[in-house]
Task: structure prediction
Amino acid sequence: MREIITSRGDGEQITLTPDELRKDIVAGTEEAAKKGKIDALSAEEIDHMVDIFSQPGRTVSVEPGKEVVVTDDGAGLMPSWGRPSAGHAIPISDHQALLMYERVYCGDTVGLGFPDYSYKPVKSAIGYARSHYKAISMLTTIPLIYGSQPNMGMYYHPSGPVESPSDYLSKFEFDKAKEVQEQAAAHMKRDIMDVAESLYEVGCEAMNLDTTGSAGDADFWGCLNVVEEMKEKMPDMPVEMGMAGEMVMGLHGELTYKGERLAGMFPHKQIQAAEKAGVDIFGIAVNSDTGKSTPYNLSRTVTFTKAASEAASIPIHANSGMGVCGMPMTLLPPIGCSTRCAKALVEIGKADGL
Amino acid sequence: MGGVRTSGDLVAWMQLTKRMKIEQAKAYVAQKLDMNVRDLTNETVMNRVREAKGLSSVIPDHVEYAGIAAKSKIAKLLDITIHSVDLYEKHMNG
Result:
């Protein structure tokens, strides 16, 4: 019996028998269906996933005609040593790295962002962001998307202006905990809007709110409201919104958007809220379990992605990267997993991009 | 899809500006280029199309069309608004 080589969610290589492979895929889709109260994959779709993992090649690809486009969270900048992590430590500028991404790697779009990738620090270095954006957008042909994280957690003490809700939650002072979260959301909204308006003045082609909801439902709430404001004032600037995880954490618990409670929302509900706010491309994020196999993690992701794709009419891009959307949580994701994730997310999950 | 090597940027523009899902975006771009959808990822065909229409590509000879000039042509071809192009034209003519 041929063994299937794949990886665990922590990146370690593992082997599965065909029976174990099928069992993991079934367990993954059933877990997602139960958690999200959505349909599990059909028997035919499970067979398709088994086939994707059973293909003998080290990498796989979609069938001709099924190709999709990609957006990113600064992938094009990675070669440049201008990153806080030094990227790949190649002594080239962001400008050079992005043009390489367009004309050498041939990305469909390219993301630009400030080295400290959150809207709060961008605001204090807006001149840098504007001059970079303007200069690069004169040279690029593919869409140049300015990305940053809303990262509402940055507005809490000790580095931010608002008291931390955890100080109040630990004392069971829930009303005060809710109040400070709403204050933080207001600060975050103002910063995102200021950055958006400043970049719009220099011709910004699109913006990305990346890792939305990382500080819970108040973070998501603030982002939905600011997108609505952005689209009202700058309707010709598209907005992409990528999520932080598969479920919106209810740290506040009572916030709603257009009548829907945000806490506990799964992707098929998140995308509906995003569409109502005016988001143009929605990025789904489903968490990987480092102790489970990639077939299990991918099966969960594909189940959530398919439900989200059917729930709204805007395009959906699966955030298939380190630790999300089926991918192992490791710095160097195995290519056998990344290509299998991409194929399944597009062919079964009906993602419009990655 | 291959970006400027094929037609990935054109399809991406349609997703961003018109909220089109992938099949609809591909069909729209193919119709505007007067070609079939399958050829959108055919490097040989798309190389000729991009050169003829001045849409930039990875070929050095086509770089003269790159950047804001190519984006201006793309906006007209696809009948979409690209804000950087609009602003540039406003500065040129204002």
